[in-house]
Design goal:
single chain, mainly beta, 6-stranded antiparallel beta barrel, 32% strand, globular
Amino acid sequence: MPGLDLTQIAQVVEGLILLDTVRFAVPGTGAPVFDPDTGEYTYPEAATVYEGPGAVQAASAATGITSIPVPNLPWPAETRSPYRALTPLSAPIAEKDMLVTVVAVHAGGDQALLGRQWRTQDPSLAGTLGAVRITFLDQIQQSREA
C-alpha cells in the first residue's frame, strides 16, 4: 500500500510561505582579533550552510524569562524570544547553535527582520510527513546603541 505523498503540497506551501531569503551559518571558531585600524575586535567569519528560500515567524506565545531564580545566582539578563524558521525540505537539517539571519525580504514583507539574528535551539525537526522543515530559534538580543 503506497504512503501519502506530500510533494505537491510542499511545493504549494513553499510558494506561499517561503518568500524571504534566509541564511543558516555555523559561527566562526577562534578568538577575536584586534584590528588596530578600527580599534575594534574582529570575530572569525561564520561558514554559510544554507542560503535560500525561507521564512522566520514569531512563535505563538512569548515566554518571557523562563528560568526560576536560585539563591546565590544572578537573575538571567536575557529573555527568551521564541521564533521558528521554515525552509524547504531540501534544505539541510540545521545543527544546534547555528546563526540564522534574513538576508532579503519579499516585496511587502517585514523589513524589521533585516539586521536581526537568531540562534537555533535544537537540530531542525524531521518527520514522516512534512511540507516544510521547521527549526526552532531564539532571537539574539541586540544591545541598544547610545
